[in-house]
Amino acid sequence: MTQAELGAKLSYSDKTISKWERGEAIPDAYVLTQLASLFGVSVDYLLSSHDSWEAPVEEEEQMKKPRYSEWKIILLAVISVWTGFLTAFVALWIFDIVWWEIFIVALPASFTVLTVLLAVFRRRRYMSWCIGALVFSLLLLVFVVIPDMKWWQLLILTVPAELIVFLSFHLRVNEENREK
User: Fold this and answer.
1) Which pTM does this prediction carry?
2) pLDDT tens-digit profile of 141-180?
3) φ, ψ for residue 98 (rounded to 5)?
4) Rounded CA separation 4/11 (Å)
5) Where is 53: in which H helix or E strand?
6) What is the architecture, at CATH level 2, of domain 3-63?
7) Side-chain half-sphere of 136: how many Cα atoms within 13 Å?
C-alpha cells in the first residue's frame, strides 16, 4: 500500500503519512486504532519497535500448533460427573437403598461443570442456554425434594428466573449511547 493509498483511507495527506514513517510526527490515538484495525494488529504492536520485518503468521502455521479439543474436554467432564453420580447410585443400591432422585441432583451438577468450562473456553454463545438449563434443573430439584409442591408453583418460579437469565445475556449497549 502506498502512502497516498493509506492517506486516502485515513483522510490524511501522503506527506503526513511520510512524516509518521520517518518518526517526525506521531498520529493521535484515534488514528492509531484505525491503523491497527486496518493492518490487523494491536495498537501496542504499532507503538513497539521492530528491528526487522516480520512475516505475518499464516493460517497453516496456526493450524499446526497443537490445540486441545475443547468440546471433547467438556464432554469428558460432564460424563465424569454422571459417572460419579451413577457410582453413588449403585453404591446405595448395593445397600438396598434405591434413590433415583440422585440423577436429578446430577443435572445441576453437570450444568455447573458445563457452565464453568464454557466460561473457561470462552464459548459465550452457549452460556445463556447452559445457565438457563442450570436454573431449570435447580428448580426441578426443588420440585422433587419438596413432595407437596405443585407443578404450577414450579412454573411460577421458573418463568421469571428464565426471563432474568435470558435478558441478562442479551443486554447490549445501544450504538447511540456508545457514541456519547
Assistant:
1) 0.55
2) 888 888 787 878 778 888 888 888 888 877 765 655 555 5
3) -100, 100
4) 10
5) none
6) Orthogonal Bundle (1.10)
7) 12
Residues 1-57 have pLDDT tens digits of 888 888 888 888 889 888 888 888 888 888 888 888 888 888 888 777 766 666 666
Which residue is it, cell 453437570? 110
Phi and psi at 53, nearest 5°, equal -70, 135
Under 8 Å between Cβ of 110 and 102: no
- Through-space distance between the first and last CA atoms of the chain, rounded to whole angstroms: 34
Spatial CB neighbours of 25, under 8 Å, sequence gap ≥ 6 = 16, 19
- Domain boundaries in the chain? 3-63, 77-169
Q: Which of 87, 89, 111 is nearest to 119 (CA)?
A: 111
What gap in Å lies between CA 61 and CA 49, rounded to an integer? 24
128 contacts 120 by C-beta, under 8 angstroms: no
Quickly list H helices, the chain: 3-10, 14-22, 29-39, 43-47, 59-64, 70-94, 102-120, 124-145, 151-169, 175-179
130 neighbors 77 (Cβ within 8 angstroms): no
